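FAQ
Q: What does a multi-component entry look like?
A: The components come first, one per line:
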Amino acid sequence: MKIENRDALANVCQKAQEDISSYKCRILVCAGTGCIASGSQKIYDKMQELCHDMEEVSVEFQKEVPHLGVVKTGCQGICELGPLMRIEPAHYQYVKVQPEDCVEIFEKTVLKGEPVERLFYHRDEEVFEKPEEIPFIAGQTRIVLENCGKIDAESLEEYIAAGGFSALTKALFDMTPDEVTEEVDKSGLRGRGGGGFPAGRKWKQVSRQAEKVRYVVCNGDEGDPGAFMDGSVMEGDPYKLLEGMVIAGYAVASHEGYIYVRAEYPLSVARLKHAIGEMEKAGLLGDNILGSGFSFHMHINRGAGAFVCGEGSALTASIEGNRGMPRVKPPRTVEKGLWEKPTVLNNVETFANVPGIIMKGADWFRTIGTEGSPGTKTFSITGVIQNTGLIEVPMGTTLREIIYDIGGGIKGGGLSRRCRSADRPADV
Amino acid sequence: MGTMTIDGRKVEFTNEKNVLSVIRKAGINLPTLCYHSEVSTFGACRLCTVEDDRGRTFASCSEEPRDGMVIYTNTGRIKKYRRLIVELLLAAHCRDCTTCVKNGECVLQGLAARMNISTVRFENTRELRPLDTSSPALVRDPNKCILCGDCVRACEEIQGVGALGFAFRGTDAMVMPAFNKPIAETDCVNCGQCRVYCPTGAISIKTNMDEVWDALADPDTRVVAQVAPAVRVAVGDAFGLPAGRSVMGKIVTMLHRLGFDEVYDTTFSADLTIMEETKEFLERVGQGKNLPLLTSCCPAWVKFVHDQYPEFIPNISTCRSPQEMFSAVIKEHFKGYEKNQGKKTVVVSIMPCTAKKMEILRPDSVNNGERNTDVVLTTTELIRMIRTSGIDFAELPPESSDMPFGLGSGGGVIFGVTGGVTEAVLRRLVDKHDKESLDAIAQCGVRGEEGIKEFTVDYKGIPINVCVVSGLANARTVMERVKNGEANYQIIEVMACRQGCIMGGGQPVKPGARTKEERTRGLYNADSVMVIKKADENPTIAALYEGLLKGKEHELLHNTIPW
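Then the predicted structure of the entire assembly, as tokens:
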């Protein structure tokens, strides 16, 4: 399917939305790292088998491809309660699903639309049917993770149906590259990799360079122990990351992008490869995107397990095929980065914020988070805490809120006495 | 442009590329292990760390000077850090200083003394690794490596070879050839620049001093020495004489005292090379064949062509290097029974070069089934032998080299500096020998320290495009241009080491640019005071062609087998 222009994309979007709303039932099985570890693949296979065997079900799905009925999503967040399953359009959130539950889910929910109550999230006698009622989710603001767990991470159509690529079309057809950069700058978006350098300023610095060959590089070498935020985005919503990168490419007049994914994320690599292939087929990547005249090509590089390659200059050295060692700066990456050319090097989460900013505007983005650092931040919660998982909260949320309100508190005790800044707002 | 305050004093700076240079210009010798102005800044050793007025510490080698900076180089904190860095380096270092090849010349050893380190608190947990002795020229001792990466950058950036690199991570990190292959099996050209840059004994010259001592002690052996031009300007300063001064006369006396039977000057065979190479060049120009001619004096360069540009092997001059020409002539000279007097002749060539140790092992460095050069000693080894002997070098009276091979021309002397071979060939090509025409040659663009020099000279109405190169990375640039048809030269002179043999891999190491200026001046001065400037005016050369060489020019002076 080749999407020739903006109108064609709108048609695809409408069609995909109709398709999705025509399903009687969609079973979304979490395929995040946590849930796969707790056995979600078995659940997925079992549900596939059940839906496949029953002739009338596939008819009810109105689809020749039963795959569309049972869907592997990215991380749905509440890893502690995995394997997770979400049923649409009934909008039930099942937790801790076991293979032996599948037949019951199939018979009750899929065929009759009735809930299996014992699989809902329970706390203190209280039952939570809908995902957003669960305190863990209720306390969050999801921008980057907006689609994670809601759509089939591999389906381009579902991403388009969820409003995907409307930011790209807006940038390509309604804005100049400078306007795009200006919008990102105005939004106050800071680099989510940890350094917190304003993304818009970085893009401006690259745009200013005399050298016309430029690169856009995404740092997906998430290496901090216990962190899986970037991995979840790459697995759960790869198209959003890619859309952000293409927009960045348009903004700084670059035609080549690289994603450096850490070695331990094979699923991210697979999902991204698949997504790039789909986008190329659809004309959303490659030469003359959507007939706009702008071309952008994407490459994936895999790390080899070196933590240091998350550092910018080591990362670009690694892409070049050299030993991943940081080099002395200056020159900085914006002046001489990949292949000695000006390079926009941002983190996965930073790029994933871009489509939202372009679509809804810098002013909207500034309403979230703090004055100095607008927007949200994703966190992985691991360790001795009640609810481990993946969350996204506005900047400025205190550590106490994250640990107690969302995380449900620490198992068997209070905050470490050493952690004295629990009430300090989170910031980048 | 601007002013900064260093330790309370105002210091002006202009175009210094980093704070370290400004600090050193201000007369403060900050220690460094990984900084060399000739290669890229690495920022690994952290010894040049300084503190600013806000208490921020940073490596001064990697910081651009800014107007108004306030720098402290010797605060208590900085001194503590610096000492700790050296202590940590020592902890992971083989500390057999007394038996180390670098004893007395080691930068790390010097720093330990400077920091007054008397104990090392940390245990050395590094596993003992075997030495790599595969190369005929160099020895690699991983146990003494401090991972400063100087050799890696020298090999990559100056020589364009890249035979060494980092491997493994963290505390397992090591410098080694790819896949830890023995050096002899890599593209290493044996130029020895890694050893010049190495601050410790991790890479050193493979020494052959014991073989020479043995030969000298054997009454049935005639030990004959030849001394290369660049050696004479690199020995004096080790014995308190001014750096760069030519001390050939003292070297001859010294070698005689050490027991050498005959001491000859390689300048003589440099003249032979000029004669042969000029002849070959004119033939090739006449036939328009195998041009550009690539000079063959430098064995590291010849190996580089064989490894990297094999399609240009026919372009290499078939002339043997001056060392090999000379050894062949010496062996021929002492061949007959009469001259032999029942003695075995051992030719020791004293060279500024490590690659010469490899050259003598070439299958073509052989005549009459015998290797022509028996041992190569580098200048560094010569200095050590002199020290061992205990003879006061500085006080020795000079002697002239022995005849019949002791006389060379000024053209032969300047072989030791980049452009020297070409200048000598140009002198040969010009019929006139008055001062004016010699000066004109010297000023045609052949002299100067640039790594790539190009100029055109006129030979009997034919314009000849000349390229003079030093440093193999520069040679790679030139060869790529030639390969792609972007440059049209008739002759390319290449010396693998920057500035030529005076900065060779076998020369004693004195970091800093002034050494090369002094040595260059020393050689040009030696040329200036010589009566005979041109190879073809050397009467002993003419006599040799009439005598010993008659009918044997090709056999003794040329290579037949490509490597």
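Q: Is there any commentary attached?
A: Sometimes. For this entry: Chain B touches chain A through ten residues (CB under 8 Å).
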